[in-house]
Amino acid sequence: MTIKDYLKDTISNCWALGHFNFSENDALRAIVESAAELKTPIFVGVSENERKHIGIKETIALVRAFREEFGIPIFLNADHHKNFEAVKEVVDAGYDAILADFSKLPFEENIKMTKQSVEYAKSKNPDIITEGELGYVRGESKIQTEVIEIKPEDLTKPEEAAQFVKETGVDLLAPAVGNIHGIVTNNSGTIDIQRIGDIKKAIGENIYLVLHGGSGLSELEFKNAIEAGVSMVHINTEIRVAFTESLRKTLQEMPEETTPYKVMAPSVLAMKKVIAEKLKIFGSVNRL
Ligand SMILES: [Zn+2]
Q1: Does the predicted TM-score (pTM) go above 0.85?
Q2: How close is the Cα of 251 to the center of ligand 1, in Å?
């Protein structure tokens, strides 16, 4: 099955693909092992900074190796690539999917740059999956204690979403629907489920919605969002937190330990626990 087959299936059978970020081998292993155990296809993503840390060639080689070892579909996505040169680099390297994120630019500029990225990507690889972002998803992939105020103009308007997908040619759309990147400790806002449904209706059945900023949302919010038309959910911060909290604890408990794989082992388990919980909530189990 191709990525598009799976995307179509998310709508007919009401579930969502999990998208998890990594920047080193242990997080990638945790994601793949969880997905393999639950028998689900999986998206793994690297932002520009994450892939600068691990290396662009290394991401390709590692994902290929994990596919061979585990025999499940693993799709490599360039998450939030914010300039055309960066998009070109990952397309040329052979990524399966890209998020050309020009959402900070004014509407017409966002369309222009996204369209340019999509055209380049499809010219190099007709099967590549392209995503654009419309609206402003605030926040960063960390624990945020400050109040993050979502302004009405941040939110994606269904009629603009329809125009955006038509003019850019993207396969996936990341809307701003009250979601925030990172874990927000001080959030009174909620996900605008009605808006998700309206946007999905406006963009049509062949374009799929991606919910960013999944970390910290409740099970009910995920389920409602998926029912309203979300086909993929991004989780990053919750794995980062599981990794670092576990690592801090391990280092404290084993101050004499110097073997890296012994120090890292509990962190891999902690990440796997978070990933498996999410995949179950997304209805991703047994979807191969
Ligand atoms: Zn994101």
Answers
A1: yes
A2: 30
CB 231 within 8 A of CB 7: yes
- The model's pLDDT over 62-119, given as tens digits with 9 standing for 90+, comes to 999 999 999 999 999 999 999 999 999 999 999 999 999 999 999 999 999 999 999 9
- Local structure of 240: helix, strand or coil: helix
All domains of the chain in start order, with CATH:
3-281 (3.20.20.70)
Distance CA 129, CA 75 (A): 10
CA 198/CA 177 separation, integer angstroms: 11
Helix (H, G, I), strand (E, B) or coil at 230: strand
Q: What is the pLDDT of residues 254-284, one digit of tens each?
A: 999 999 999 999 999 999 999 999 999 999 9
Rounded Cα gap, residues 273 and 72, in angstroms = 19
CA of 135 to the centre of ligand 1 (A): 12
Q: What is the CA radius of gyration of the chain?
A: 18
CB 110 within 8 A of CB 77: no
Q: How far is the CA of 181 from the centre of ligand 1 (A)?
A: 6
The pair of three-digit structure tokens given for residue 107, joined into one six-digit string: 């509407």
